[in-house]
Amino acid sequence: MLARDPADYRWRHTLALALNRTAEVEFERGELEAARSLYEESRSILDELVRSFPQKLRAQGDLAVTLTELARLRRAQGDRTLALDAANRARSILGALLASPPSPLPEWEDCTRQVNALITELTA
């Protein structure tokens, strides 16, 4: 469990987002395993942040986005089961975020549409 230090939250959150950006580049280059590893590391950091700082909605939203990207990557790797697991977890997080105040961020609504489409595709 992390210390509840705001500086610790900020640097870990920044690290997770940097890992996601690097994973996007690796994915675009076709380096799926490298991208998966980076997304998994980011997911681990964000999971810990969400547990340690439950009031930080941004971390929850970023975790949902990361899980959505992991689901896409797993689908690209041919692993529908893990893709569906990640997508369902993302949808659960996003559902809670959209149902609670304050107003949802536009990227959460966009991610919800994307994850719902992905789940529809994976379950077809």
Could you give a quick summary of the protein structure above?
The chain is an all-alpha fold and 124 residues long. The protein contains five helices and no strands.
Shape: globular
- Approximately how much helix is present in the residues? over 70%
Percentage of residues in DSSP E strands:
under 5%
Number of DSSP helical runs: 5
Order of helices and strands: HHHHH
Let me know the largest β-sheet: none
Total strand segments? 0
Mean pLDDT: 92
How far is it from the N-terminal to the C-terminal residue, by CA? 39 Å
Structural class: mainly alpha
| Cα-based radius of gyration, to the nearest Å | 14 Å
Explain what this protein looks like in three dimensions.
By secondary structure, this protein is an all-alpha fold. Helices cover 82% and strands 0% of the residues. The chain contains 5 helices and no strands. The protein has helices at residues 6-28, 32-52, 57-76, 80-99, 106-123. Helix 1 packs antiparallel against helix 2 (32-52) and helix 4 (80-99) packs antiparallel against helix 5 (106-123). The longest helix is centred in the N-terminal third of the chain and has 23 residues, at 6-28. The termini are far apart. The model has no long low-confidence stretch (mean pLDDT 92).
